[in-house]
C-alpha cells in the first residue's frame, strides 16, 4: 500500500493576524564550514523550532561564506542569523547575530540531542509532534535570567535575554486565538554553571479525571503520539485486570487487594490531580476539547535539546566588510581598564585608516570614470570624422574613375566590329573554297604534314620487314593522294591521323 502524501500547508505560513511583514522577525539557520552529519541534522531541527518565520528549505553551498548570507539578508528582510560551526578542536559553536548592525553572540554547544534521539529514548513525556503546530511561532519562556542576588552584576544576561526575545514575535494575547499556542521554547539559565538549557516542547490537552491506563486506551485526534508500545492484554482475563492491577504485579485474583491499585492511588496520579487541570476558555485542538471543559495540560518534549554557554560578544557582525568590531565580553579573556582603553584606541585608528583607504579608492574610481566620460566624446568625434572622410572618398571614387592602365577602345564599337567580321566570314565560306590561297593552307597544315610523314615512314619501315615495301607503299600512296584530293575538293581540313604504336615505338 502506498504511503499517504503528507501535505505541507505552506500557504498558512506567515504573520499572524494583526502583524505585518515589517515587525515580524525572520531568521536564517545555517551551517558554516565543514561539519558532521549530526550537526547538519541539528540545523534542520533548529529550523523547525524557528518556524514559520525562517528559511526551512535553505540549502547551503559548500564554498558559501557568511558574507554571502549577510549580503542577501536585507533583500529578504532577514533580521537574525544563526550559524553552527565546527572548530578545529571539535567544538560546536552557535553564533546568533542581529542584522544588519550587530551584535553577535557566540555560544559553545556543550552537548545536544536531536529529535530522533529523544523519540528513540525510553523517557516519559517525550514523543513526536502530531503536525500542524509549526504554523505558528512558539511561546518563549525564559527562566532565571535576572541578576544574581549575591555577587557582581552580569550585563551579558540582559543582552542574551534581549537577543532571544528578538528571535520571535511578541505575544498579543488580545488578538491571538488559543489554538495558535501549540509549542513552548524553554530557556533556563543556571548561575552555578553559567549555561543555558535549551528545550523544545509541544502542548497537549488530555482528559481530566481519568487514570493513565485509561488514557492510554483512548485514541484522541490531534494528541501527541508518545513513544510507547501498545498495551499487552494477552495475559488478562478481564479489562479490569489491566486497569486496576498494580504495576509489576502478575496476579489476577480480584478478591486479593495486594495486586491492585487502590482508589486513592489512582486519584493521586498526575492525571487526576488538580495542579495541572484547567477549564478551557476556548475550543482547543483535539476531539472533545470544547470551551468550558476541564482538561489536563501536559508538555511533551519533541526536541532538540541543547546546553549552551556564552563565550564571546562582539558589537559588529562576524564576516562582514566592516569587521566584527570591539569585543564586549569574553569568557576566558579578562582585560583591565587601561588595556581596554588602548584596545579601543587601536580599533579607532584601524577604523580611521580603513575609512581613509575607502575614501581614496572612491576618489580614484570617480576620477577614472570622469576620464572615461571625457575620452568617449573625443573618440566618437574622431570616429565620425573618419566616417565622413571615408564617405567623401567613396563619392569621389565613384565620380572620377582611375583610367590609368585601361584601353581607350569603346566596348560597343569593338562588339559591332566583331559582329561585322563574323558576317564577312560567313559570306566568304558561302562563296567557296577557291578564294583561299593554297600557300596559306600549306602554311597552316605544314606542321601536321611533317608529323604525318614521320609516322608513315615509321610504319613503312616496320611493314617492310615482313612484306614487300613496294606493293604496300604504292597502295597507301594512292589512298593518301585520293584522300588529299577529296579533302581539297571539299575545302575542309582532314582530321589528324591516329598515332600507331608497334614494337614499343611511338
Automatic annotation (TrEMBL):
Q: Give a Pfam family name.
A: Brix
**What residue spans carry the Basic and acidic residues bias annotation?**
345-360, 414-423
Provide the Brix domain boundaries: 25-319
Disordered: annotated segments: 1-22, 252-278, 337-506
SMART domains noted in UniProt:
Brix
Ranges annotated as biased composition (Polar residues):
252-266
Query: From what superkingdom does this record's organism come?
Result: Eukaryota
PROSITE patterns (UniProt xref): BRIX
- Biased composition annotated in UniProt, kind: Acidic residues: 384-413, 432-447, 456-465, 473-491
> Where does the record place Basic residues bias?
1-14, 366-379, 497-506
Q: Which PANTHER family match?
A: PETER PAN-RELATED, SUPPRESSOR OF SWI4 1 HOMOLOG
Protein name as it appears in the record: Brix domain-containing protein
The protein's organism comes out as: Kwoniella shivajii
Amino acid at each position: 500500500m502506498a504511503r499517504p502524501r503528507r501535505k505541507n500547508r505552506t500557504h498558512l505560513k506567515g504573520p499572524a493576524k494583526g502583524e505585518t511583514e515589517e515587525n515580524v522577525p525572520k531568521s536564517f539557520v545555517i551551517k558554516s564550514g565543514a561539519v558532521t552529519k549530526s550537526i547538519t541534522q541539528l540545523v534542520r531541527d533548529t529550523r523547525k523550532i524557528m518556524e514559520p518565520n525562517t528559511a526551512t528549505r535553505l540549502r547551503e553551498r559548500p564554498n558559501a561564506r557568511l558574507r554571502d548570507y549577510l549580503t542577501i539578508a536585507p533583500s529578504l528582510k532577514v533580521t537574525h542569523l544563526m550559524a553552527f560551526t565546527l572548530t578545529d578542536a571539535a567544538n560546536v559553536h552557535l553564533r546568533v547575530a542581529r542584522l544588519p548592525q550587530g551584535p553577535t553572540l557566540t555560544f559553545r554547544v556543550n552537548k545536544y540531542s536531536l529529535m530522533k534521539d529523544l523519540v528513540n529514548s525510553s523517557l516519559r513525556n517525550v514523543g513526536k509532534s502530531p503536525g500542524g503546530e509549526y504554523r505558528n511561532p512558539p511561546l518563549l519562556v525564559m527562566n532565571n535570567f535576572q541578576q544574581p542576588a549575591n555577587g557582581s552584576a552580569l550585563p551579558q544576561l540582559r543582552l542574551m535575554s534581549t537577543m532571544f526575545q528578538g528571535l520571535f514575535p511578541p505575544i498579543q494575547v488580545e488578538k491571538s486565538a488559543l489554538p495558535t499556542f501549540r509549542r513552548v521554547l524553554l530557556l533556563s539559565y543556571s548561575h552555578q554553571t553559567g549555561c543555558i538549557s535549551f528545550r523544545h516542547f509541544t502542548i497537549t490537552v488530555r482528559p481530566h479525571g481519568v487514570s493513565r491506563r485509561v488514557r492510554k486506551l483512548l485514541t484522541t485526534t490531534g494528541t501527541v503520539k508518545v513513544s510507547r508500545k501498545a498495551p499487552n492484554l494477552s495475559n488478562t482475563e478481564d479489562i479490569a485486570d489491566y486497569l486496576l492491577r498494580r504495576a509489576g504485579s502478575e496476579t489476577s485474583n480480584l478478591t486479593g487487594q495486594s495486586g491492585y491499585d487502590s482508589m486513592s492511588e489512582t486519584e493521586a496520579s498526575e492525571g487526576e490531580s488538580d495542579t495541572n487541570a484547567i477549564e478551557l476558555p476556548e475550543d482547543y485542538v483535539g476531539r472533545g476539547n470544547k470551551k468550558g471543559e476541564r482538561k489536563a495540560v501536559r508538555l511533551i518534549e519533541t526536541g532538540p535539546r541543547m546546553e549552551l554557554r556564552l563565550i564571546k560578544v562582539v558589537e559588529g557582525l562576524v564576516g562582514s566588510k566592516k569587521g566584527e568590531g570591539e569585543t564586549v565580553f569574553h569568557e576566558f579573556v579578562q582585560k583591565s581598564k587601561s588595556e581596554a582603553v588602548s584596545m579601543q584606541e587601536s580599533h579607532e585608528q584601524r577604523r580611521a585608516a580603513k575609512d581613509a583607504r575607502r575614501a581614496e579608492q572612491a576618489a580614484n574610481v570617480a576620477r577614472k570614470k570622469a576620464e572615461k566620460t571625457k575620452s568617449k566624446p573625443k573618440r566618437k568625434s574622431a570616429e565620425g570624422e573618419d566616417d565622413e572622410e571615408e564617405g567623401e572618398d567613396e563619392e569621389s571614387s565613384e565620380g572620377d574613375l582611375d583610367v590609368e592602365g585601361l584601353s581607350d577602345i569603346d566596348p560597343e564599337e569593338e562588339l559591332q566590329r566583331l559582329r561585322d567580321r563574323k558576317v564577312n566570314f560567313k559570306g566568304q565560306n558561302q562563296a567557296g573554297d577557291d578564294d583561299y590561297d593554297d600557300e596559306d593552307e600549306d602554311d597552316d597544315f605544314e606542321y601536321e604534314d611533317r608529323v604525318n610523314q614521320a609516322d608513315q615512314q615509321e610504319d613503312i619501315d616496320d611493314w617492310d620487314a615482313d612484306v614487300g615495301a613496294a606493293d604496300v607503299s604504292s597502295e597507301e600512296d594512292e589512298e593518301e593522294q585520293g584522300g588529299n584530293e577529296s579533302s581539297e575538293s571539299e575545302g575542309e581540313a582532314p582530321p589528324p591521323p591516329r598515332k600507331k604504336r608497334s614494337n614499343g615505338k611511338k
